[in-house]
Design brief:
This protein is α/β, with parallel strands linked by helices and 404 residues long. The protein is built from 13 helices and 20 strands. It has 2 domains: 173 residues, Quinone Oxidoreductase, Chain A, domain 1, CATH 3.90.180.10; 136 residues, NAD(P)-binding Rossmann-like Domain (Rossmann fold, 3-Layer(aba) Sandwich), CATH 3.40.50. Strands 3, 7, 8, 11, 12, 19 and 20 form a 7-stranded mixed β-sheet that branches.
C-alpha cells in the first residue's frame, strides 16, 4: 500500500481480483505535491486542480466492490466513469453497507429485483466532486455531497404531485440493472447530490440515506408532539426511527427486539423502554407495551417485516392510531384486519423517501439527531469483503466503508 495515498494501488497484493503490476509512485507524488501547494498557497483552485488530476488517472484504477452472483463478491478495478451534462463525478468518501447489499451478495436478488449481470453494490454514500457536467451550476469541484440514490427518470404525475418515490420509472444505485456507489469513483445526477456543511462529516453524510427512510416513515406514521410510539425492531432503521421520532416531539418510545445487544443500544440512544421478544403471542406483547407506556401507543412503526410483529403492531396500537409498515417481509402475511377495522386503526405503507435530504442534513447540522453512536465498524475499501462478513453476522449496527 502506498504510504502517502493510504489506499490500495496497482502493485499492492492480497486482494482478490486486483491486477498487481507496479507501485503507485506517481499517485503518491501527486498527493504530496497537492498537499504542499495547498498549504503554501492556500488556494482552493490548487486543491480543485488536484482532484481533477486524480480523476484523470489510468482508466483501470477504480477499485470497486462487485457482486457476481449468490455468494460471489469480488474486488475489481473498473473504468473511471465520466459525467454527462447534468451529472457530477465523485470520489467516494464513505459508504454504509445496507441489508439490501447483503441480500444481493447472498442471493443475487431482492424481492422482484434480480441481478442479470455483475453489479457494483452500495447506495448509502457521500463523496467529493471531482468533475462537473456542462449543465451543472450549483456544485463545483471540491464540494462534499450526500447522494440521494433513487430518483425518477420521467416528470410524471407522481413527480408533479410531490411523491416522486412512487414513480414507476426510477434510477436507483445498486438496484438491477444500475451499479452502486462502492467504488473509488462514481457518477450521479447532480440534482440529487446535496452539499454538506462543514459541520457534517462524510460518514454522517453517508448516513443521510437511511436517516431519510426514518424521516419519511415518521411523517407517514403521523408522529406528533407528545406521541407515545412503539417501534418493532432495533436494527439500523428501527434505531433511526427512534432518533427521528424523539426529534419530532415523541414523548415516550418503547422498542422491541430479539437481541439484547441491540436493545441496549436503543436504550443508549434514547429509548424510554425496551422489550425483549421471547415466546409470547402478539397479544401478550401488546399487553407488555401497554404496561410499559401506561397506555396503548398512538403510533406503531414496524421495521422487521415479520408476521409476528405486524400482528403485534395492530393489537398494540390504540383505536384511531396508525400502524406504519416499514419492514418488507413475505408477500403474503396474516393480519388481524377485523381488529384494525372496528377500532379504526390505519395501516399505512411507505417506500424509500421523498423530499427528505434537506431535512436530514439540517437535523445533523443542528445536532438534533446524532447518528454517530450507530456507526459501530469502520473499514477501508480494500477490506470490503471483511466488512460485508461483519454485516452479515450482525456484529454491529452500521458498518461504514472508507473509499478514499
Amino acid at each position: 500500500m502506498s504510504l502517502l495515498c493510504g489506499r490500495l494501488c496497482p502493485g499492492d497484493v492480497g486482494v482478490k481480483g486486483i491486477n498487481t503490476t507496479q507501485p503507485c509512485v506517481k499517485d503518491s507524488r501527486e498527493i504530496k505535491r497537492a498537499l504542499i501547494e495547498t498549504t503554501l498557497k492556500g488556494g482552493r483552485a490548487y486543491l480543485s486542480q488536484f482532484w481533477i488530476e486524480r480523476a484523470a488517472m489510468s482508466e483501470q484504477s477504480n477499485l470497486s466492490v462487485v457482486a457476481h452472483g449468490p455468494g460471489d463478491l469480488r474486488m475489481e478495478r473498473l473504468p473511471i466513469p465520466e459525467p454527462g451534462p447534468n451529472e457530477v463525478q465523485l470520489q467516494m468518501n464513505s459508504v454504509g453497507i445496507c441489508g439490501s447489499d447483503v441480500h444481493y451478495w447472498q442471493h443475487g436478488r431482492l424481492g422482484s429485483f434480480l441481478m442479470q449481470k455483475p453489479m457494483v453494490l452500495g447506495h448509502e454514500g457521500s463523496g467529493t466532486v471531482t468533475k462537473v457536467g456542462l449543465e451543472v451550476k450549483h456544485l463545483q469541484v471540491g464540494d462534499r455531497v450526500a447522494i440521494e440514490p433513487a430518483y425518477p427518470l420521467n416528470n410524471d404525475e407522481f413527480c408533479k404531485s410531490g411523491r416522486y418515490n412512487l414513480s414507476p420509472a426510477m434510477f436507483c444505485s445498486a438496484t438491477p440493472p444500475h451499479h452502486g456507489q462502492l467504488s473509488q469513483f462514481y457518477v450521479h445526477s447532480a440534482n440529487y447530490c446535496f452539499k454538506l456543511p462543514d459541520c457534517v462529516s462524510s460518514e454522517e453524510g453517508a448516513f443521510i440515506e437511511p436517516l431519510s427512510v426514518a424521516i419519511h416513515a415518521c411523517r407517514r406514521a403521523r408522529v406528533k408532539l407528545g406521541s407515545k410510539i412503539l417501534i418493532c425492531g432495533a436494527g439500523p432503521i428501527g434505531l433511526l426511527n427512534l432518533l427521528v421520532a424523539k426529534a419530532m416531539g415523541a414523548a415516550q418510545v418503547v422498542i422491541c427486539d430479539l437481541s439484547s445487544a441491540r436493545l441496549a443500544k436503543a436504550k443508549e440512544v434514547g429509548a424510554d423502554f425496551t422489550i425483549k421478544v421471547e415466546k409470547e403471542t402478539p397479544q401478550d406483547l401488546a399487553q407488555k407495551v401497554q404496561a410499559a407506556l401506561g397506555s396503548m401507543p398512538f403510533t406503531t412503526i414496524e421495521c422487521t417485516g415479520a408476521e409476528f410483529c405486524v400482528q403485534a403492531a395492530v393489537y398494540s396500537t390504540q383505536s384511531g392510531g396508525t400502524v406504519l409498515l416499514v419492514g418488507h417481509g413475505p408477500e403474503l402475511v396474516s393480519v388481524p384486519l377485523l381488529n384494525a377495522a372496528i377500532r379504526e386503526v390505519d395501516i399505512r405503507g411507505m417506500f424509500r423517501y421523498c423530499n427528505t435530504y434537506p431535512m436530514a442534513i439540517a437535523m445533523l447540522a443542528s445536532k438534533k439527531v446524532d447518528v454517530k453512536p450507530l456507526i459501530t465498524h469502520h473499514f477501508p475499501l480494500s477490506q470490503a469483503i471483511e466488512a460485508f462478513e461483519t454485516t452479515k453476522k450482525q456484529l454491529g449496527i452500521k458498518v461504514m466503508l472508507k473509499c478514499d
